[in-house]
Amino acid sequence: xxxxxxxxxxxxxxxxxxxxxxxxxxxxxxxxxxxxxxxxxxxxxxxxxxxxxxxxxxxxxxxxxxxxxxxxxxxxxxxxxxxxxxxxxxxxxxxxxxxxxxxxxxxxxxxxxxxxxxxxxxxxxxxxxxxxxxxxxxxxxxxxxxxxxxxxxxxxxxxxxxxxxxxxxxxxxxx
Length: 175
Fold this sequence. Notes:
Elements: H1 3-29, H2 43-56, H3 59-62, H4 68-94, H5 96-99, H6 104-127, H7 141-174
Helix pairs in contact: 1-4, 4-6, 6-7
């Protein structure tokens, strides 16, 4: 492995560390609000959610219980992915994928799940009929696309994690 591979690897480890570190408070204080009682959250986080809902008109996060498929994605995130976020942040920060290759396969699983979940969200955001929705929902194609952009950073990061994990696993097989 060349020095440029090692520096690139370290850069990717830093990016993934930052992403998983961000996911911890984001999941705990924001994503869970669509599932659990509002009384659990400080007013600052409730107002952040309200601002997000007004800006992106996200009917899924507004009421996950009305969308069982989305609720299942949320519950997987809360109970399975949440512990992984801590471990991934720790591993990418202290070791990186080259020194601790045991992070590669779980990262691939996480990324594949996230990519497929977001694709489902995008298809529903673009194609669903929200005319009867009681929750705030997109009213036109512009708002539907705007809603999709809210999920785009998670899709992009997951694709990076997926590609990077695949690339590293291929390198391990060759070596």
